[in-house]
From TrEMBL:
Its main location: membrane. The keyword Transmembrane applies. InterPro entries: MFS, MFS_dom, MFS_trans_sf. This is Major facilitator transporter. It is a multi-pass membrane protein. Pfam families: MFS_1 (PF07690).
Length: 440
């Protein structure tokens, strides 16, 4: 934190601590329910086939269509958040995605399945960059990275929790609904209930926060405004998102994150099916097995984050974990279901660590005034990997009866991404109208 006056620095530190304790647990909880509603489709694949006749190709396409509407509406949603405020817009996002998740319980065939996945993607769009934007208005620059790391842990926790929770809910029957329908209804309504809490708990601006003293509000507002004045002093012209679109480095960031997303969602949507082939497991047991790779990945994320902090070369560490992911995904297509499961556990060490290690690179590259918008762009384009992976997997499995081709493709993309991230320039050129300073 840049405040030089000792007394003011103490007030700012106290205010920042209050902000983190007030909002971060809520954001982590929101991320967990968000992630579960996004990926719970992976647990119902066989049920959709048995009850609705939705085959592998249709399942893969429907699972991936979420990311098409998500990408289309991500940046507009973030712009509307800035207009209407974080409190109102994040509440709206949660309510609509929760209701869309409930609607998944009542699909009747392929077309309604496709439609509801598109609606769910549009409803969720803007949540991730909206939280990033919130951090820029409430936390000093030096604190945002730490907050981001805690927030991203919600994804890892959701990966662990989604299996047992979804599997357990699928054992419920009654009122004419199948277990997979109850899963969608209950998990979707959990988002709606949490949205009510968001409305009463969250504030859009520091000045609205009655849980901060006036002195603490002043300290945060002064620090954020001072950061902006420093940027204005260096850059006479505000950077433009459109000018950054002409920067090949942004394209490289999108390519890298697209490759990471391919592997994450390829594993996420097909892992339950691999587990079912290992033995005669019920839905809850499948969910428990599904948690194992993600538990391993959490430990790996923190281990590699510590190594990257100690031995400075962020690009090399991202490249290293991408190669681990490539090796694991290639091996997953070569053996029995049990061997594939073990290989994916190994791959998870790489692709989840790659996701966490990647984001500090564009954050260090971008001017903070347009960071939220450009991160939303990178996130939305990169997340299209969540469309390509399941759609391609489903098509290949239906045509060949095997996932070997899909796994090999994911391995190749991870190797390409590892080479790109290792050799590409990751620090900005000195162009004041577009970029700022040097990456940290």
């Amino acid at each position: 934190m840049s405040s030089s006056h000792p007394e003011r620095a103490d007030v700012l530190a106290r205010a920042v601590s209050k902000v983190k304790w007030h909002v971060l647990p809520l954001f982590v909880a929101m991320f967990i329910v968000n992630y579960i509603d996004r990926v719970n489709i992976g647990f119902v694949r066989q049920h959709l086939s048995a009850d609705l006749g939705i085959g592998a190709a249709a399942y893969g396409l429907g699972a991936g269509l979420f990311f098409v509407s998500y990408a289309v509406f991500e940046v507009p949603s973030n712009m509307l958040l800035q207009r209407f405020g974080a409190k109102a817009w994040l509440t709206r996002i949660m309510i609509t995605w929760g209701l869309a998740a409930v609607g998944m319980a009542f699909v009747k065939g392929e077309m309604s399945f496709y439609a509801m996945r598109l609606v769910l993607g549009a409803a969720e769009a803007g949540f991730f960059p909206g939280v990033l934007f919130y951090f820029t208005k409430w936390l000093p620059r030096d604190e945002r990275g730490k907050a981001m790391a805690i927030f991203l842990s919600g994804s890892a926790l959701a990966s662990v929790l989604s299996g047992p929770i979804s599997g357990g809910l699928m054992l419920i029957t009654g009122l004419g609904l199948h277990g997979w329908q109850w899963m969608f209804v209950i998990e979707g309504m959990a988002s709606v209930v949490l949205a009510a809490f968001v409305w009463f708990w969250l504030d859009s601006k520091p000045r609205d926060a009655t849980w901060l003293t006036r002195e603490e509000q002043d300290a945060i507002v002064h620090e954020i405004e001072e950061e902006q004045r420093q940027r204005d002093a260096v850059h006479a012209v505000k950077p433009s998102v459109w000018s950054l679109l002409r920067d090949p480095q942004i394209v490289i960031f999108c390519l890298i994150y697209f490759s990471v997303s391919l592997t994450i969602y390829g594993a996420t949507f097909w892992l339950p099916s691999i587990i079912r082939k290992m033995g005669h497991f019920n839905d809850f047991q499948v969910g428990l097995f599904n948690s194992i790779p993600w538990i391993i990945s959490i430990a790996a994320m923190y281990l590699f984050a510590m190594l990257a902090a100690r031995f400075k070369f962020q690009q090399a560490w991202v490249s290293c974990v991408l190669l681990i992911a490539a090796l694991g995904m290639y091996a997953a297509g070569q053996g029995s279901p049990l061997f594939s499961f073990v290989a994916i556990c190994f791959a998870a060490i790489g692709f989840k660590a790659a996701s966490a290690l990647f984001w500090p690179i564009p954050q260090g590259y971008l001017d903070a005034r347009i960071t939220a918008a450009v991160l939303a762009l990178i996130n939305s384009i990169g997340n299209l990997g969540g469309f390509v992976a399941p759609a391609t997997f489903g098509f290949l499995e239906q045509k060949t009866g095997s996932i070997e081709g899909g796994m090999t493709g994911l391995a190749v993309m991870s190797v390409v991404a590892a080479a790109v991230v290792f050799f590409a320039r990751m620090t900005p050129r000195e162009k004041p109208a577009v970029l700022v300073g040097r990456a940290h």
